[in-house]
Design goal:
Elements: H1 3-12, H2 17-20, H3 32-44, H4 53-57, H5 70-77, E1 89-96, E2 99-104, H6 111-126, E3 135-139, H7 148-163, E4 170-174, H8 176-183, H9 187-191, E5 198-200, E6 203-210, H10 213-218, H11 222-236
Parallel strand pairs: 2-4, 4-6
Antiparallel strand pairs: 1-2, 1-3, 5-6
Amino acid sequence: MEESLRLAYLAAMDIPVWLLRAADPVLLEDEPEQHASAHTEALETAAPPGAHRARDLLGSSASPRIAPPRAVTERARSVPQGPAEESGCALLLVPAGYTLFIDQAPPQGSERRVLELIAALAFAIGGGRVAPQPYPFAWPPRGVAYDRAQARDAVLGLMAKLRESRRFEQVIVMGEQAAALLLGWNGEQYRARESRSQRVPGIDAPLLVTHSAAGLLENPLLKRASWADIQAGRSGGV
């Protein structure tokens, strides 16, 4: 079967793009004030899941593709990478469409790939292209001892600030470190998690936990497990 026909068939079967191939380069935003208009435009043109997938798979999309702005890349690289919970935490909050993704800070040099993966995942969920904007989060400030409750409050404060300009229908927590901070989970609880959305005090949208973006990039076989988590969480309600 020709590749174009195969991709069209898979699209008709509602197989998400991000499971089939690496994500396409995406438009990233540099300034917060630019995000509101682009976000509104993306939502106004969004279609139900599956509506644009055949066109996307066949490569006929004319959406703009540019390299990430230098400032965005530098902000992502300024976040400490993978500290132990006793000393601090580093996360990346990424609004994309109606979904807020909260991931652990990506390894140095992988920020672009992580954002492309999140953009592709957001497209599979919502059916419309979005321009993700990363918000690095690092805690504690210099000279302050780490406290999980204070770090969680700081993350919730950043989430509240993001909600001032957009509405989130769900929050997807990606990886063990983000789950430890927001839910207080240990490694065993993270590994034993169920594929369902839940309500969490301080967060006004259903929350779902799945694999980190770095884990999905390292082991593409986890993509299907992560997509199953998201689908089960969305269909199961809270």
